[in-house]
Write a structure and sequence with these properties.
266 residues; 26% strand; globular; eight-stranded mixed β-sheet; two-stranded antiparallel ribbon; single chain; alpha/beta; Rossmann fold
């Protein structure tokens, strides 16, 4: 594992994402989205923008026996971590490097397409959704999760404000894009325009858990490769810790977050 000298956190960005942010933010929602789509044994499943496999791995348990599950991502670094963590206890997972704008699959291949917290980062979201629809079987299901309003997540709000103040708006764009699809009607309209039907979009609250505000700040900075110095790093940690003090618990930091869960049919 490599080390970030600026933030003094071991690991690459993809490794930090998997070891810190998947259990803190992603794992809970993966299970909720899988339950919403209701995969059945033997079905063929695609996870678009799979990252390190936070949703892909638990979804694979639903497809056995005789199912197929594919995780697609454009990042070889994310896929390298996913392959290293791949479990043989469920259906074998196919990890594929590729772009959502031109997926390497025949039309009508999958029963379910998942897209968990990736849609907001695609350059052409409508084209991406149309491509997801293309690879679905007739009456196949699309299951999407995106982050809801940043105003309902104090941790995200505080982090975005400090990142903008100390590192500039360009370094804080990750927070902007994370919440850019926070309007349920915007998500519904995108999915409808892509040709889907029977669309539901439900705002749902969850919880983010970190060991401490300092742990959150250091790991986010290291994961994103944000350049800093000791004085600035100390100020950011102190300010985030003070702002999130109401969410400190004996077992660590806990604050609410909203996500939108969407389900549709081809």
């Amino acid at each position: 594992m490599s080390e970030s000298n600026d933030w003094q956190v071991p690991g690459s960005g993809s490794e930090i994402y998997e070891t810190v942010f998947v259990p803190a933010m992603m794992a809970e929602w993966a299970l909720r989205l899988i339950a919403l789509a209701g995969p059945q044994p033997g079905e063929h499943i695609l996870d678009v923008g799979c990252g390190t496999g936070a949703l892909t791995r638990p979804a694979a348990k639903s497809t056995v026996p005789k199912g197929r599950i594919v995780g697609l991502d454009r990042s070889p670094e994310m896929l390298a971590v996913a392959r290293a963590l791949d479990s043989s206890s469920a259906a074998p997972i196919e990890w594929r490097e590729g772009d959502v704008s031109d997926m390497p699959f025949e039309s009508g291949t999958f029963d379910i397409v998942f897209c968990a917290f990736s849609l907001m980062f695609f350059p052409d979201r409508l084209a991406a959704l149309k491509e997801m629809r293309r690879v679905l079987k007739p009456d196949g299901r699309l299951a999407i999760s995106v982050w809801g309003s940043i105003n309902k997540c104090p941790g995200q709000t505080v982090m975005k404000e400090r990142w903008e103040r100390y590192f500039g708006p360009d370094q804080a764009t990750g927070f902007t894009y994370m919440h850019i699809l926070s309007d349920p009607e915007m998500v519904r309209s995108l999915v409808y325009d892509a040709g889907f039907r029977n669309i539901s979009v439900e705002p749902t609250m969850g919880v983010v858990r970190h060991l401490s505000p300092e742990y959150l700040v250091r790991n986010y900075g290291a994961m994103m490769g944000t350049p800093t110095d000791e004085q600035t790093r100390t100020k950011v940690i102190q300010e985030v810790s003070a702002a999130l003090r109401p969410y400190a618990r004996a077992e660590g930091l806990e604050y609410p977050i909203e996500a939108l869960l969407a389900l549709a049919r081809k």
